[in-house]
Amino acid sequence: MSDETPKPDELFGKIDYRTPAKGWMDTPVNIRKGMYCYASNPKSVKNLGLPNARAWNPLEDDWKLPENWQQILHEGFKERLDKFRSIKIFMDICVRCGACADKCHFFIGTGDPKNMPVLRAELLRSIYRNDFTPTGKIFGRLAGARPMTLEVLKEWWYYLFQCSECRRCSVYCPYGIDTAEITIFGRELLNLIGLNIDWIATPVSNCYNTGNHLGIQPHAFKDMLNFFVEDIEEITGIHVEPQYNKKGADILFITPSGDVFADPGTYTCMGYMLLFHYLKEKYGLDVTWSTYASEGGNFGFFTSHETMKRLNAKMYNEARRLGVKWILGGECGHMWRVISQYMDTMNGPADFLETPVNPITGTRFENAASTKMVHIAEFTADLIRHGKLELDPGRNDNKIISFHDSCNPSRGMGMFDEPRYVIKNVANNFYDMPANTIREQTFCCGSGSGLNAGEDMELRMAGGLPRANAVKHVHETYGVNMLACVCAIDRAALPTSMEYWVPDVDVTGVHELVANALILPGEQDRTTDLRGEPLPGMEDADEG
Amino acid sequence: MRTISRGGGRNAQMNFKKKISQHKETIAKKWFELIINSYPAETARFLKTRNDPFANPVGMSTRQSLEVLIDCLTDQIDQTGQDKARSALDTILRIRAIQDFTPAQAIRFVFDVKQVIRQTLSVEHSDSQTVKEMAALDRQVDELGLLGFDIYMKCREKIYDLKANEIKSRIYKAFSRAGIIKESLDDV
């Protein structure tokens, strides 16, 4: 051991006495193609009643801001410092210890120091000091303060949309500063003067109008699920009959619309449908889908508190309208942070619903006593724990699986073991990634918080690098070929990330694996999985 | 005389490459410093000092790949060696292709190794045979650089492919499977 202890001169030798050539305040923002998302469509902004709806381009000098934009931001800042005590504390308390600095996937991947969470927050703090603290007002730059200028504003916009609000940095902060909330707060300020991105604004507008991000109307939503019914029948020989908008059902099921409309989430969706069918046949479980509350995701969360509240309210209003007992939620990411950390004081408590009880096992979900909403991984883990599912994990034997903890279900609601428990019961080959890349230390997919657009692909690939690097390790070490997750954005983002970084690894939802393994009463001999690919040992089965 | 001379040349070449191998650690360290200093100072500090491959994937994978590339310069040039070089270059360039570098800045590091070796082994002050060997090595490095261009471009093309095809493969596939899109994508 003693040999490994560095000698003083070795340590001194490592000290870099050079100051950076330029301080961060003097390093101008360079808005680079591939690193930002397109500005919002004015129609969407107008539809939501948000300010300053107009077409604008981040690459042009003129961002078409209101004349008094500085005053609007100052007053918005002040109002929120009074309203959210957390923000006031986060502005004051940071000692710039740097514990968070190298924990951000965007910093690790881009190498841009302004993506260090401390520095990203400092972009806002410098204005806070200038506008609201005596030391900042008197000492200016010496106290880390600077006035709000167009350059600073552009820096805010560029870097606040290079944070996926994953909260990994917060895990390491000795003061518990929630840097995601600083981003949320900053984006809310930017929205006051009409600086949003279209990948967020248009889904929010769609969701506000039709109930889901893609703007799919109720009949098309139902059509899509009916197509899955046909696929399921072809693969299993079982005709499932999902219920829609059923008044008086026991449980309302809400999942992100990505599961209904985008691969590979669609297979996860088929997984839910098969599970519900099984439970209905065996135990009489009464679950309904809603074609109105057809979105679990909430991009309002990436816009402002008010917008998040408006979208979240729809789910609870629909539960009230249908008269269900409680809500079961699908495999979604940020939906669960909204539910676990904001819903209760925003639209809750949901007193008109009952504390969720699994009617099959009798398990009472005390963790959801106030929000009345249970994650389907918790629900399925409970069923398996009580021996209520007949499973053949061998059907997943051609999949060597690892699990990506999605940021929000892990750090936002503390769900680590339930998905792993489910996977280990429905499949035989499971390997976790290294400890500092999973559970509460999990790395973001790189595309969360509304950044999953096509135009910012370089940003997404850079942000996805630390996660992909850990996947590459288990791929090379254990032959992992399937990455499971419980988030629709992950299912949309990770296949692209894998294609760039680890091309031999595919992505699946946990309930796709469940449905592959589930032995349905009366099913035909299954030769393929839900993707139509041969089950292990069935490679030579007659396709006809 | 000729035979002796040729034999001497081969020996000198062996010795030169052996010398590089002997000084591999120093060369790798200096080369790593150069590539890392292409990042802003605050970032470079992190990339240099954090030794966990999962906390610092850029720094660690770059360091490992440079060591492999030095081996490739000294090992025999065969298919295995070329595959090794390609894989090591890919690891570094796949990262630099998405970072804030121009194509030249991204690939520049390959050519930097010439100076690193010259300085480390004091090539300019060596005998003429060593200078000759160094010239041969320069050409080998140039080849690596050219291979680097190919890899860099492949990464960039991949990014454009992903941009173009992501939505299609994600949404359209699901819609077409459901029969919502009447015309089969395969027929387009």
- How far do the termini of chain B sit from each other? 71 Å
Which structural class do you get from the secondary structure elements of chain B? Answer: mainly alpha
The biggest sheet of chain B amounts to: none
* Continuous helix count of chain B: 7
| Strands of chain B, total number | 0
Beta-strand percentage range of chain A: under 5%
Shape of chain A from CA axes?
globular
Order of helices and strands of chain B: HHHHHHH
- Helix-strand topology string of chain A: HHHHHHHHHHHHEHHEHEHEHEHHHEHEH
Q: How big is the Rg of chain A?
A: 24 Å
Low-pLDDT residue spans of chain B: 1-8
Taking Cα atoms only, what radius of gyration of chain B do you get, to the nearest Å?
Answer: 22 Å
Q: Quickly count the domains of chain A.
A: 2
> How many beta-strand elements of chain A?
7
- The share of residues in helices of chain A is 40-55%
Beta content of chain B comes to: under 5%
Structural class of chain A: mainly alpha
Mean pLDDT of chain B: 87
How many domain modules of chain B?
1
For this entry, give a set of tags.
heterodimer; A: 544 residues; mainly alpha; three-stranded parallel β-sheet; 22 helices; B: 188 residues
In short:
The complex is a heterodimer of chains A (544) and B (188). Chain A has helices spanning 8-14, 42-47, 69-83, 85-93, 105-110, 117-132, 134-139, 150-160, 168-172, 179-192, 198-210, 218-236, 258-261, 265-283, 305-322, 334-346, 376-385, 407-412, 417-426, 457-478, 488-501, 510-517, and strands spanning 251-254, 287-289, 326-329, 373-375, 401-403, 482-485, 506-509.
Question: Can you offer a commentary on this structure?
Answer:
The complex is a heterodimer of chains A (544) and B (188). By secondary structure, chain A is mostly helical. Helix content of chain A is 46%, strand content 5%. In chain A, strand 3 (326-329), helix 16 (334-346) and strand 4 (373-375) form a beta-alpha-beta unit. The longest helix of chain A is centred in the last third of the chain and has 22 residues, at 457-478. Chain B is 78% helix and 0% strand. Chain B is elongated, with a radius of gyration of 22 Å. The model of chain B is unreliable at 1-8 (pLDDT under 50). With 188 residues, chain B is mainly α. Chain B has helices at 2-22, 24-36, 41-49, 57-74, 79-96, 103-120, 128-177. Chain B has one domain (2-187). The A-B interface holds A 14, 16, 18, 20-21, 30, 32, 34, 101-102, 107-113, 116, 220, 223-224, 227-228, 231, 261-263, 266, 434, 436-437, 454-455, 457-458, 461-462, 465-466, 469-470, 473, 492, 495-496, 499-501 and B 39-43, 45-47, 49-50, 52-58, 61, 94-95, 98-100, 155, 158-159, 162-164, 166-167, 169-171, 173-175, 177-180.
